[in-house]
Amino acid sequence: MKNILIAHGGGPTAVINSSLQGIIEAARESGQVGRIYAARHGVEGILKGDLIDLTDVPAETVRRLAHTPASAIGSCRRKLGEADYPVILQCLKKHEIDCFFYNGGNDSMDTCQKIHAMALREGLDLRVIGIPKTMDNDLAVTDHCPGFGSAARYAAVNAAELALDAAALPIHVIVLELMGRNAGWVTAASAWASRATHCEQLVCLPEQPVDEKKLLAAAERRFAKGKGLLICVSEGVCGMDGKPLASTGIVDGFGHTVAGGTAQYLADRLMQELGVKARAEKPGLLGRTSIPYASAVDRREAYEVGSYGLKAALRGESGSMVAIRADRSGAYRSELFLTPLTNVANVEKCFPQEGITEDFGISDAFFDYAAPLMDELPRQYAFL
Question: Which residues of the chain have pLDDT under 50?
């Protein structure tokens, strides 16, 4: 019988707990797993020896994970140092861990790869599998990441609702700031607002530096039409000098500058330069963990990558991440496969330049890609 350990890293999503559910239920169904452990707050829990024994958690509680926001076992942002590995090794040996699953994004896959390398170096018989998770959708190789579909759905619907508000009272500009760090995938989804409403919309992604003069000119031109104006911006948007338009100045555990304040910065610029009323909106964490907006497709695939990862480890696979291959030629379908952790650790998949159109727009091709992942969106609003 195998003992397994599950940990979460980075920002939670609306469906991260579905992957946890998938691992637990597949482990129970396998008949090959003895103890099921989870590290409280990711690798921090491993370093502190703070493990949760999930072996006998009631089945009904496990089923509720699918509708529980954030991370039920906690998460962290911790970059491993050389002094951490002996501590991790000791914890793994103490609990006789045979399989380790780390659910996260780019940085977490780097952590996963380092633990895999440590096991090989120390001669430890440990199977290590990465479970993909990030609302940013910036993991390489995989078609998309669990967590993205739900965050994109949230962005699309909320942007459309704000667009309708802007159109109803077109005396001000609404600037919506969305998460995603250096990747604009979620913000791109907000462009659905211009397809679902009559409101004017401008979209700014971090993959394309913003010329503020051009943006302000476009805003003035669109606002003058009197149909309302919504500007959607990624938190990590940069100016032509390559520097973020706004920044908190805070650096996280992996050395990333914590972005934020872009919407307020642009709202202030609109008021100063154009003399129009502007207000900044920032859903922030709600945009990544909202259960009411969660995509059913996203939840299902998150469950499947967890289950698939467990089964892969039990058949002897290690040093890999579960990835998704999608077929959009007809009715949407997806299948899972494994890719080496070295292909994804610290590799960032940016939004494609060809998906960004002139005058701050997003191409239809992006929505051909994203629509199946967001699941059903409101079909039609009333226009009188």
Answer: none
Catalytic residue among 98, 107, 136, 298: 136
Round to whole Å and give the CA distance between 115 and 145.
22
Question: Does residue 377 contact residue 153 with C-beta atoms inside 8 Å?
Answer: yes
Predicted TM-score of the model (pTM)? 0.95
Domains of the chain: 2-133+293-343 (3.40.50.450), 154-284+352-374 (3.40.50.460)
Q: Write out the H or E segment, with its range, that includes residue 38.
A: strand 33-39
Task: Please check whether residue 142 is in contact with residue 340, taking contact to mean a CB–CB distance below 8 angstroms.
Answer: no
For 123-157, write each residue's pLDDT tens digit: 999 999 999 999 999 999 999 999 999 999 999 99
Q: What per-residue confidence (pLDDT) applies to 43? A: 96
Identify whether 136 is a catalytic site residue: yes
Question: Both tokens of residue 169?
Answer: 């009272």
Closest CA to 374 of 301, 318, 276, 322: 301
